[in-house]
Write a structure and sequence with these properties.
single chain; 123 residues; alpha+beta; five-stranded antiparallel β-sheet; 2 helices; 5 strands; 21% strand; globular
Length: 123
């Protein structure tokens, strides 16, 4: 999906993150909660995940996106510090399909600590 070159990057980013949140819908069809911001550099987004990672049963899980590193999975800290990144989706493009992001998220929640532990760099 091309979010760049559109008339409003904020609107396009919101539509993309909304589509990812819908792909992550809970069993009852409720989309995941998210925030996004294209006014900062890098543009970024946060999606709250429903579930816990094996080994971290007391920590909330989130998907994080920014235009430099693409999608990554993170766990919340208890102290209000930065999120702890546990895996990156990687790939060749920072804006993969919502379905690909959903597959990544489900594998992460199933305990598959994916192969990308270092953040990819997208131009």
């Amino acid at each position: 999906m091309d979010i760049y070159g559109q008339h409003s990057t904020e609107t396009t980013l919101h539509a993309y993150i909304s589509a990812v949140a819908a792909a992550l819908a809970q069993a009852d069809g409720t989309p995941a909660q998210y925030t996004c911001d294209a006014s900062t550099t890098p543009a970024g987004a946060y999606i709250a995940m429903d579930g816990r990672l094996p080994g971290f049963p007391d920590r909330d899980v989130a998907l994080i996106w920014d235009e430099r590193h693409g999608w990554g999975g993170a766990i919340e800290t208890h102290s209000g510090e930065d999120l702890l990144m546990v895996s990156y989706l990687g790939g060749t493009h920072p804006v993969p399909s919502p379905e690909r992001v959903a597959r990544f998220a489900h594998r992460l929640l199933d305990g598959a600590m994916l192969r990308h532990l270092d953040p990819p760099e997208f131009a």
